[in-house]
Amino acid sequence: MNTATFLDASARGRPEAVLVVHEGRRYNFEQIHRLVNQVASALSAAGFNPGDRIALSCANRPGFIVAYYGILKIGGTVVVLSTGLRERDFLEQLRDCQAAALFCFDGYGNDDFAQMAAEAARNSEFCRCVWIIPSDLFAPSTVAGVPSIGELMQGGVSAFQTAAVDASQTAIIPYTSGTTGRPKGVEITHGNIMAMVMMNVPLGTWEDGRVRLVATPLFHIMAQISGLTFPVLCGQTMVLLERFDADICVGESLDDGSARGRDSPHPDDPG
Q1: Per residue in 31-53, pLDDT tens?
Q2: 266, part of any domain
Q3: Which side of the chain, N or C, has fewer Cβ within a 10 Å radius?
C-alpha cells in the first residue's frame, strides 16, 4: 500500500514522459524516479528507517517531489510544514512530531528562511540532519555548514526497493492552521491517500498526457492529492509555480508557449 509505488509504476510504464516542468526545465518520469531512489537509498544508508518522521518545508519545485517520495520509499512519514512559519512555530512543530530530519528550501534565495529553519532544527532534540533544497536541484546549499539535497543524492544509488507498508501506516502529517488553538498534526495514512484519490476521480481527468498547473502550495493536502498524486499515478505532467504570478502562468511553456490547466485540451487535441 506504499503510495510511492505510484511513481515506481509510472516510471516503468512511461519513462520518457514529462512529469515536471519548472522554470523552463523539464524532468521525465525516469529522471525523477532515479533522483527519488538516490534520496531514499542515501536516507537508508544514513540510518533512517520505516516509520521515521522526516519534515519537509519547500515551495513548489522539483526538490519537493524528490524529497517527498524519497521519504515515502523508505517507509518513512513526511511531515509537511508550511513555508510561512516563523522560527518559534517551526521549532514547536518539529518537536511536536519528533521529526528526525528536515528538508528545507532556500527561501527563494533572497531571505533568511532556510537559516531560520536550520536553526530551529538544531534546537530540536529530535532532529539530527538538515538538507537545503535549492531551486536548481544540484546547486550548492545557501546555508553555511548545512548540506544540500544534491549532496545527499551523491551518496545514493539510482535503484531502491520501495518499502512495503500497511495501509494503516501514517504516510504524511500536515499541520492545521491553528484557528482553534495551536496547529495540530494530522496523521494521514497510505490508505487515506488512496481513498482520497478514489473520491476525487469524478473531479479530475485520468488520461495520460494531460497537463496540470500546480499553483497551490504543495504543503496543502489537496495540492498533494490533485496536483501531485494524480499526475504521478496517471502519467500526467505537472507545471510547478513556486509563487502565483499571472505573467508566469501565461509564459510557462510545454510546447506551444502556453500553460494548460486541468480542463484544457489534451496536447494532441487540435481543439
Answers
A1: 999 999 999 999 999 999 999 99
A2: no
A3: C
